Amino acid sequence: MSGSYEDQPEMNTLSQVIDPERMTKITSNFTRLRDKCYLENAGATLYPQCLLSVIHQDLMDNVYMNPHSDKYTKDCIEQIRSDILKHFNTDPSNYSVIFTAGTTSALKLVVESFQFSVDEVEDEESTSGSFVYLRDNHTSVLGLREIAAERNADIIHISHEDFLQALNTNYDKSKAQRKVKFPTKNDANTLLAYPAQSNFNGYKYPIDRIEHIKNGCLNSHLKKQLCKINNSWYVLLDAASFVSNSKLDLSETQPDFVCLSFYKIFGYPSGLGAILVKNSSGDALCQKKYFGGGTVDFVLSTEDVHVKRKELYERMEDGTIPFLAVIALKHCFDTMHRLIPKIINNHMMDTISYHTFYLARDLFNQLQDLKHANGSKAAVTYMDSDFSNIKTQGAIVTFNLLRADGSYIGFVEFQHMADLFNISVRTGCFCNSGSCQRHLAATNKELKDIHKSGHVCGDEIDLIDGKPTGAIRASFGYFNTFEDVDKLLNMICKCFVKTKRKPRKRILTQIIDSLKSTKLYNGLTNAQKILSEAQEFIMPEAEDISQNMDSAIVLKEAAIFPIKSCGAFKIRSTWKIGPKGFEYDRDWMIIKDNGVCLTQKQNTRMCMIKPKIDLHKRKMTLYFEGRHPISVPLDFGSDSKLKNSSLCRSKVCTDTIQGYDCGDEVADWISEALEISYLRLIKQSSDDNRTQKKKHDGEKKLLSLSNQAQFLLINKATVRWLREKILDPLFTDDEDSLTDRFRGNLIIEMDEELAERDWHRVIIGNQEFKVEGLCPRCQMVCIDQQTGEKTVEPLRTISEQFAGKLRFGIYLSYVGPADGSKDRLLKIYSSVKPIINDDDISR
Ligand SMILES: *Cc1c(COP(=O)(O)O)cnc(C)c1O
User: Fold this and answer.
1) pLDDT surpassing 70 at residue 57
2) How many whole angstroms separate alpha carbon 694 and alpha carbon 813?
3) For ligand 1, mutation pick of 107, 108, 110, 199 (most atoms within 8 Å of CB)
4) Which of 275, 327, 645, 670 lies in the 20 to 30 Å Cα band around 163?
5) What spacing in Å lies between the alpha carbon of 435 and ligand 1's midpoint?
6) Exposure of 22 by Cβ count < 10 A (0-12 exposed, 13-18 middle, 19+ buried)?
7) What pTM was estimated for this model as a whole?
8) Residue 443 above 90 pLDDT?
């Protein structure tokens, strides 16, 4: 019961579907992953590298024209349509392929074109038809109800349990007496939409009960909703998640409309999907309004006359289809067939199915068994099957983690650690709010309240009153191996499950002792110690110091980060505060050749570029170990100074930034230092007015390229407190280098840790600041600012200490000189006066 992942038996009993030799061949096509562990296949799977070369070669060798004008290209595409149908074990006599931009637009096109009512005139008597959907659908299916409602269909949703029960109850066909043998004038159609596999947790819904549905097994549910029963049922199957890992055999089951996206099967091309329409149901798609190029046989531009083409897909595909992407599909099929052996049932998809199922099952089982040292469960899973049957479960595992005391670990906290370990998973609700709600047991009212309180899909609020608002999803593809399962579990154990580590107690005391021994003057407050040390070095005016000696809090250090994500420039004495924060703080950034800003998250070596600013010589000099320093001018204003500077735009945290290019010489220097080609150094143009994201009282603060606020204040006492909490013997930072990781602008020294969290305003020297809130920390604090090395700490301990809220340091915005003067200089070793609003003591 004292189990941990490391205590689990060896995994040699696991079923290995694809032999190691073949597996090596497969993984050699994904070398671009390097050490990344990719478990987000349900979002998009990855293409094998060899696929790109064959597609490239094809496009290099052949002339493909618009298929409307070129018979050859059209023939190639026709051929691919039948290849697709063959993949699903059917042929053009039974099904048609309509190309779309993806599953979402496929679903939309079906509902827009579907004939809900045979007689679409507004008439009280006429039956309106219904749109029935499973609640546990992808958001793209939920949105269909808006179109269906506009088309006057009744909108009916059905719960997971009711749906399964209706489908699995053996339904007496004779009693079902299909009352209406042939559609009468008032007859209408019912369209049922459900997923073949849940994108939330990989549960496979029955797809072999289509006949049952068509025979009316859901009629009683409709009756309960006081809807008229329309005997013509059509099934819209969302197969996007299912077909990525499973065999869909359309000779065994025949949904009317099957929607899918090809990137979920092959990883490439994106932007291409399809509807597979059962030919005998094609007529139900007769309500399509728009016609575009290629869809009509005849049209008059001046009269409301047009005749649609007779082939279903010709009527449905408006404009020119993405024909080069379609051409690529041929190679997708060929490449997969070459790469994947047909071990199970002599079928490629069955082989993939089993291979990925075993991986997911292994993860599931190990999560089930995962326990904290005190015996409490370390994970909860959100599954609808226990992996006992591959027919009902795909290769997805959805879960949350628990602390030893039973409380939840937020998925955002998990996501940060996963990023750090280079593991790709999905967190949140994965566009399936129905399943999310059912598994997290949240009521509609709770969800509305949560939304009212400011939470939206995709934000960082992962726990509300201790309850999770989402989960973690790991999904497998054919290139994954048991090693990937290990990587994820090792990371979970390392970060979140305290495994039995006997020597821990001893390490704890050692660290504390060594920290104690470094405290030099035990009688003084820390601030006084700093001041007395500072006195020796810079000798400011005598009264100043004596005054400050009384102060309990002092500004110990100030720093700017001239280039976003690069090293700090520590301020020696005073520095000017500009409209965006400290002058020259994050005034420059490095952008990649795609125009996007480079950050330490992508390249940890950035912190080793150390800028120094010389205000007299008006230049910034960059230093990097082993390279000659290089300088750029501070001023750009007069455009003539740098001839080849050009105004450019870049994205920083989804904002567009305007700036000047600093020229080729420094660009080459940086590219070589960071070992990334085509980097450019950009200086933010002074008229670029980024404002603080969180706007209080309608006032806006100008921002430089720092992402959140003008200043970040770090309390050294809090850093010391954190250092003592970090028990990992591998973490060797001292207090100062740990402080550096937080990349604060203002480092204060005082005796009390965490006190800064309660401040509302703060006056440093003569300058007043307003507290904007706590700083949410990301994995950047895990980068050693001297070496660029990544560590697990201090993020793990921060998250542990603050119950998953990764907050450290406070954001400040500048208010102005406290004495009303024009003085905008900030001096180090100034005293720090915190102000706590009286009316806010309740916090
Ligand atoms: C991915 C997915 C979708 C949406 O597919 P798009 O390619 O984004 O249009 C819809 N349903 C399910 C079940 C999915 O997995």
Assistant:
1) yes
2) 11
3) 199
4) 275
5) 15
6) middle
7) 0.77
8) no
